[in-house]
Amino acid sequence: MLLRWMPLTSRILQRTMTTISSGPKESTGTKLEKIEFLNQVFQRLIRHSLIDSSNPDSKVIEFKQPHELKEPIDRTRPGQEPVSNEVLLNDIETVLQYSVKTGHPRFLNQLYAGHDVHGLAASLLVEFLNTNVHTFEVAPVFSLIEEQMIDELGQRIGFPEFDGLFVPGGSIASIYGVHLARYRACPDVKRKGNAAAGRLVVFASEDAHYSVDKSCSLLGIGLDNLIKIKTDEGGRMRVDDLVGRIEQVEEEGGKPFLVMATSGTTVLGAYDPLDELADVCQKHKLWLHADAAWGGAVLFSAKHRRLMKGVERCDSLCWDAHKMMRAPLQCATFMTRHKGMLQECNSMSASYLFQKDKAYDVSKDMGDKTIQCGRKADAVKLWMMWRAKGDRGWQQEVERVFDLASYFASSLAHRDGFRMVIPHADSPNICFWYIPTRLRGQPETAEWWQQVSLVAPSVKSQMQRSGSMLIGYQPMAHRNWVNFFRLVITCNDLVTEQQLDTVLAQIEQLGERK
């Protein structure tokens, strides 16, 4: 059925031939060759991404060890002479053959999966137009679409006024959060560097994303000045510990300036208590940033929005539509309620791009308030998806994610050998151990837990080699937890209760093998 569109290509070719027949023969032939090449590429991509990946009986991956995969990839190394389009099509087949089918219903490995078809169409639009969203003059439509999406997101968050940008991922958004917070704490840093600020200190939960560490390292704050705050039994930042650590730093003469909260931690899926954290930050005059890269989608749900209660009080926020909402990578935003601060903090007024005497409203030139120059039109992906779904569609998809997670957690609790790491709360993350029959009913000594720690890597290795499914595992050393599984659910409509039952059955089967 999905291939019925392909005869359209022949009609496009006929029209193209008519249109360009007046040009030089070489030009006509070359253009038609390019169109036919793209037609062949699209056929392969549609077969792989929309047909094969949606088949639950297909493999998630044709797994090869790096040294095994190196041989076919080495054969594609560029040489002195050009190769034909036919050879390039074979190269594409090689890439597709050994790549992970992230849209597969049993790809439950990461905080993203597959693609939304409307987002994919938007990606193609962006790639075909191939422009840079730094000035209105070269990206007039894309600039206004980004402005529109920032406006919609700001209203969804509840900021009274706001500004924002689409950025290349949540890690870059963390950098923006630290960057703007530092600028507000000490504007002189822009010219004089960190020496002008004294000892600046950041606070984040012990379960925060590692990009917080990288941001502090990159921006010269230093890892020693990143204070990790304890979390409660559900993985949420403990406000009492935060208050104690802030007061300790102040007594030592340091300058607390930023709290990095998380709405949907990477492993446990926990939501820090934003309203309570905002009270603390208001009292101590600290910037509050919410990393909602994974969990921000709950703002579309009337039922689950309460998980981010107080979000409108945050100073800034990161939200990745390419995670739970399944936009094509990358589609991430940085939002702040401090209108104008992005411009103040980042502007360098390059005269070859950002002239003030242009023939249009130069406030539409967004490039000067970014830390980049080259920037893709990622907003178009969210724009087209939002148009296709509407608010109601997003709400239904997000609530389905949480319903499936609850179903999986409930099913797991009623099967022998499975044990939740923490009681399941409102979260798309389900963390658990599988205890093989041979280890059940034994004293849970250190040696016993060492044996349990081997189960998840063994099961993961078997599922990779067979290609049956992919889910993640990890330890959490600061909690003394050995390797456990983390299954995550996104807005992939191919993930069903039946597929989740299959996952549990396969873990049982693979986990019993020594």
Low-confidence stretches: 1-5
On the 0 to 100 scale, the average pLDDT is: 93
* Structure class: alpha/beta
| SSE order | HHHHEHHEHHEHEHEHEEEHHEEHHEEH
How far is the first residue's CA from the last residue's CA? Answer: 44 Å
| Portion in beta strands | 5-15%
Could you estimate the helical fraction of the residues in percent? 40-55%
What is the radius of gyration computed over CA atoms, rounded to a whole number of angstroms?
Answer: 25 Å
Count of DSSP strands = 12
Given the structure, what is the number of helices?
Answer: 16
> What spatial form do the alpha-carbon principal axes imply?
globular
Biggest β-sheet strands, sense, barrel: 7 strands, mixed
Biggest β-sheet: strands ordered side by side in the sheet: 2-8-7-6-5-3-4
